[in-house]
Amino acid sequence: MTILITNIKELVQVRDVPVRKVSGADMGILPTIKNAFLLIKNDVIEAYGKQDEMPNITTDKVIDASGKIILPTWCDSHTHIVFAGNREQEFVDRIKGMSYEEIAKKGGGILNSAKKLQETLENELYSQSAKRVEEVMRLGTGAVEIKSGYGLTKEAELKMLRVIKKLNENYPVTIKATFLGAHALPHNFKDNKSGYLDFVIHEILPTIAKEKLASFVDIFCETGYFSVADTEKLLALGTAYGLVPKIHVNQFTAIGGVQMGVKYKALSVDHLEEMRAEDIEALQNTDTMPVALPSCSFFLNIPYTPARKMIDSGLPLALATDYNPGSTPSGNMNFVVATACIKMRMTPEEAINAATINGAYAMGLEKTHGSISKGKKASFIITKEIPSYGFIPYSFGNHCIDKVFIDGYEI
Ligand code: NIG
Ligand code: FE
Asked: pTM to 2 decimals?
């Protein structure tokens, strides 16, 4: 199947020579072609260029994109989309004055979601999660990472990872799985954190590695959850099993998790709402991608990742949703891009780079996703008629998308 898209007002994030990620001042540069065409063949980008240089060819379908902008689909490198039920009561409790930490201490939070997930049959968990996957595809997400971590028993963690695998098989969106067994301490290990960590490392991890159910290993490295020493223990064994670290660090407190992630060559360190100068320093000249989750900051009313300081110091930055029932019940990357501009003072160019090529890098997908380049996946957004790509974050909360193609399929 060949599809030719003509008269594109602006083709955004065009990389003739593909880059792996963009950092520092380069994040402010977003290469585009005005008045362009795009040719796709099956699931890949075959050609693109200026409209007046379009080859005279016959294709199965032609789409006229006059007045519309095309950009690669969003790459959402951090989500917990597979979960059971919701936690809107905790949302109301927070409105009335309880903190996220207080709710968690009273048995709400992650343990509340774990209880619901353990009681939910695999088929039901699949259909609840599939609805959310369909929703984010319509919102322009073409590649997404999904974590386990609401199981907290061997059986339930494996159930989550099997659901993630099935979603990847059944939908065109590319899905990468992360094992987050060390997300919280379950009730049955209440006063035995080292016992639970040993259980995660020695009982669950080997099965996951053997059955190839995850590419990445994650831990909630945070005061009151898992320490830096716990993180080291997990990452040492996780990497020995071939899983690449992508970890939750510096959400509420900065305790050295960033440095531990760098030590174990984490592909990404995520959250980073609390960043000390030494944390920014530790990320310099490394292959670890810092990932900000601004819709989590928005929903929990906590600080935003200091993007300006980080980018101005030369670091790269990726943006992701953190879609989950507790801290971010939203998977809308358009909102994330807008919030990054509005609250983190990122320019539209920086935010779009962060949500496409840098997000792809944070999932190990930069060779196939994140830019309009020949041979990459035919995954792109066609906007409605809008004046410029900067209109997407500017008109926050409004729906700017006309069509979404993922791996060549129109969604
Ligand atoms: O990334 N911080 C840890 N985990 C999730 C939220 C978990 C929850 O509240 O269910 C996060 O914010
Ligand atoms: Fe998260």
From this structure: 0.97
